[in-house]
Input
Amino acid sequence: MTAPVLQAEGVVKRFGGLTAVNAVSFTVAEHEVLGLIGPNGSGKTTMINLISGALTPSAGTIRLRGRPLSGLRPDRVAQAGVGRTFQLVRVLPGLSVLENVMAGGVFGHRRAWGPALEAEARTLLQRVGLGGREGEAPEQLTYIDQKRLELARALAGDPALLLLDEWLAGLNPTELQTGIALIAGLRDEGRTIILVEHVMHAIRSLCDRCVVMNSGSRIAEGPPAQVLSEPEVVRAYLGE
Ligand code: ADP
Output
């Protein structure tokens, strides 16, 4: 049996007296889209930061294809195969839109800076809806376009696991439809994804399985239609 793409076991993160993630365990299988959902403050972004190496767990282990990630710096985690977008987007100023995507290929996948990577970056920009914007300065892009850029940059690293932290947030209805179709395309080509998301119909249509968090703990796990109808999950979302 091959190891799951991601395996989180008993992961704990404390900030002083606050336990933001409380002994959370889950796995993500190859080609699976896992929804990490739950009300605000439930620990989802902290979990994503623990996986990507931005934070170090207080306890527990996180493995990528069997290899422990805990304690690795974010750049090492990226090189190990974890790509991500941020809730608050982070573009690389001083580099063009095209160069931002190419940088993702160099840092995430140790690709050589050159024509092959450039051609791929152009294709990715086309795919996320930024075709023709290659020469622009990323800091001049709108928030939504910066999110598109981040996704292209993450994909340029050809990640074994892609972490999307509220990538659909803030989109208007038309953009939302395009965004969902884009993620569905990534799923259909066999990518393995953890989706932190609040948009319920996106969760229902994109996720194979959901892990629901509340107050740092995992309170439910299963297919979206099932978990979203569980009374404890409904109560958590209603803040009761
Ligand atoms: P979510 O992504 O589900 O909205 P977060 O992971 O952002 O939740 O936050 C979980 C809890 O941890 C919240 O109570 C939040 O205030 C707290 N928290 C997150 N990051 C920090 C930090 N760097 N220092 C202190 N508390 C934090």
The CA atoms of residues 39 and 238 lie 8 Å apart. The chain is about 40% helix and 25% strand.
